[in-house]
Amino acid sequence: MEEIKMAKTNAKTNVIIAASMGVIVLLLSVFFISSYFYNWDVGQFALGMENYDISMHQPHPPGYPIFVGIAIGLDSLLNNANLSLSIISLIFAILAGAFFYLLAHAVTKDTSVSAMAAIFFITNPIFWFYREVGLTYTADALAGILIAWCAVKIIFNRNYTFFLLQLAVLGLFAGVRPSLISLMLPLVILSAIFVRGKKFFLWGLLILAVSIGAWLIPTAMMSGGIMEYYETTTTLFSVSAEGTSILAGAPWEATWGQIKTFTGVMAAGLIMLAIPLIITAILLLRSKDIYKKIREKNKNFGLINFTLIFLAWVVPAIFIYAFIHFGQPGYVLLIIPAFCLIAVLGMFYLLQKRWGYLLLVFLIIIQVLIFILLTPFATSPTNLSKAEIYEVYLEKINPWFLKFNYTVINENDEKFALLDEEINEYLNSQDTTLEETVIIMPRNLFYEEDGFELRNDEIFRQVMAYYPEAIVIEVAPDRDYWIEGHENITTHHFDKEVIIPAERRHIIFIANKIEEKDYPVGISLNRDREDRIYSGDAIDITEFEFATFKFKKN
């Protein structure tokens, strides 16, 4: 009876601590949420909220239907697409912080070690960065943590009902991040090896089928059928892999560049965890010592099984990210929690010593300062004069050390705030509206500044989402097609002639900078704005040329 009462008390304590970890995530994040679409992908999600069509990349295949569906529901209350997407990302992060504590405690049965590991994860700069913007990568973190938590419950505690939860998580979160099916399936298979009882497998397969079908069938129907959906999705994957994977025909130089990017991002995400990880590696070589100490806390702990869980979690992702495709730095949020988890062995050792405790607290403080205070001017050639000496050295060692902080988010917000202000000022000065305006944007157009050759920002999707009433056109000098966005519909035109409706009386060019040699021919531009606005009066213009394309009014 006493043991049951103690177990209930411990369970209640763990729930309170886990909830506290979620609250910490919320408090650390709420003041830094992005105000504008952070990148191209966020713009695609926003367009998908208005007109879901993966053939238009609204969003891009495989579609992220659950993520977009939740965002549509939330946006009906907030009427702010970016805020809705960002809040969903933050909710996933809050749950990830809470469940990471439960995962660490399921392994160690030690409250102090588990809380310390959770705070390390919560203050990780990459995890912090991506929970402030409207992207899906915090869902990767949460799904990985939940599936690993279920694996620990299955393998350590022989609680096979968690196998059903594990499959439900895999199936449903695949509707947020479909790549999770291939990335986390090895850990699910490892868990299945330990499951006893045919009924768990039968129910598990049914739960997996229903949870996948719940989002796959509607998404396929909206995409023209299952074969159309399959072809659209696999085509994008093939194109992506062909450019990065030596296994898909890409040159070794491309794959090697991808490996360097992946390892650079991982280094930026794990740098403050290096000491606990090194101690963990040493302890694993002296496994009897650490095994005995953790077994005193958790009699079900098995060092081999713990290592297998870690390997099944990280090895598939490392292989895919290194040798097949690593599209965005946020991908690493799937496996960063795994490294935070295995570091609990090193933390277990350090927390037995006062200096070790102080060291871990110091490292956590450094992580917080990296996100809040770092001003990474060294990563931008045009801002090198503002860079501090330490930033220049960090950039030379690994530029990714400077990429995940609030300054990056804030600069993006300031850029779009100024852009929006300039556009509205122009429209007011001309006594016109977006319905009478064409916005033209160059892609792959370079310009020189301070001796550097720079490429204009690629913000077509964000601009299209913010100004649906305008006709937004993207052209690139090296392409034989152009893209049109209007009223949340994307159209590709496979020719070199762009037709502008006669009622469109004004033209705005948006670019960081257009060199004089690249100026459009046949229309005069005014550059009297502070930011990237070039305006051109198209009332009396019948045709002009820009970026190898011919523009005509009908």
Could you provide a short overview of the structure?
By secondary structure, the protein is of the alpha/beta class. The chain folds into two domains: 2-373, no CATH class; 409-553, no CATH class.
Molecular structure report:
The structure is a single chain. The chain has 554 residues and is α/β, with parallel strands linked by helices. The protein folds into 2 domains: 372 residues, no CATH class; 145 residues, no CATH class. The protein is built from 21 helices and 11 strands. The chain has a 6-stranded mixed sheet with strand order 6-5-4-1-8-9, covered by helices on one side. It has a 3-stranded mixed sheet with strand order 7-11-10, with no helix packed on it. A two-stranded antiparallel sheet has the order 2-3. Helix 1 runs parallel beside helix 5 and helix 4 runs antiparallel to helix 5. The longest helix has 28 residues. The N and C termini lie far apart (86 Å).
